[in-house]
User: Fold this.
Amino acid sequence: MRRLYSLLLYLATPLVLLYLFLRGLRNPDYLARWSERFARFAAPAQSGGIAVHAVSLGEVNAAGALVRELARRYPDHPLCLTTVTPAGSARVRALFGAGVFHVYAPLDLPGAVRRFFERVQPRLLIVMETEIWPNLYHEAAARGIPILIANARISQRSIGGYRRLRKWTAEVLGQVSRIAAQTALDAGRLVEIGADPARVTISGNLKFDVRLPPGQAEAGQAIRRSWGAQRPVLLAGSTHEGDELPLLEAFPRLLETWPDALLVLAPRRPERFGRAAQLARNAGLSVSLRSAGIVVPPGIQCLVIDSTGELQTFYAACDVAFVGGSLEPHGGHNVLEASALSRPVLVGPHTFNFEEITRQLVAAGAALRVSDAGELHTALLRLFGDAELRDRMGQAGLGLVRSGQGALDRTLALVGELLTAAAVTPAAD
Assistant:
């Protein structure tokens, strides 16, 4: 099966490159560093450390506290971080700078993954969430490199495909040393698709272990004061077009009641910054861009965040947070970033990527579900008009975040076990 998979992947490689080229027409960063995707890069100055794979922006953010703690606890183990997307790459640079070695992850081709391991020579491979790459895992296992899948999850939407390939996924997951699942539900699904129950641990979700950078909340409040402390502000974070269209239908209606309200729109993908701004103009809103400055004059009704890595700072500047990817079936994005800053949360019906966390937030009274522009308008009227309700929801969300913390320590304990085992186990020939 792996040979057939590799053959099909080699045949599909031109299509992968075409995809990168087409994405590059909107975001030129996709046109750069293609050699890294075939593991053709200069080896790091130090090898023999820990490699962490985080596919994109959300996974890098989830890995942030883990990577910082790895650097503190294991200063003699150089860190290599890999991503797939330019947004993830930019976030690695913003969070860690030159403190880690960073390249794009290799395509899952046998030759590429061999070159990657020859250059980096890690003692441990940590894969964030659930990225199942047969050749990457096979090569790591062949070299005696333990594999930890951290913050692992399987959504209801994706489990059907894995079930159909259970025999193969069981073979691939059999090469994984330990799996740290977010919830009991995720652990059960992982076992269902072939993971060894003895290797699966329920660690909790690393995204609960939010570590706000010093001064971030204060920076957000300073931004808010520059806008006007009494001005109602809705931040729509990590949005897709399917979120923006209902938002831009609801918000002009909201201005009839709250004429000085401000919509802060943070598209998920950098290549959509211009498109989101145009959609807001098409909806009749006066628009400013973050790149033009932080200060938003009273006449501006929509600020588009055309930058990356600043979302939490802007969450700290809002009254209400809407978390995108949820009004159409993208599965939703991280709802905890806003809750960690005591902000009430609105989400759409499609939150399967964060199903358990979102369920807990709704049950705790920290979040409300909305399904369309009409429900958005109704919820925003209610929240903007009731400061006590906003405060109760925000405090409920913060309490849930604090109660869910601990995944970081449990994950680090697994890292310690695997590094110890690797130190006494000779690598495979």
Observations:
- The two ends are 22 Å apart (CA to CA).
- Residues 216-403 form a domain with the Rossmann fold fold (CATH 3.40.50.2000).
- The CA atoms of residues 342 and 391 lie 8 Å apart.
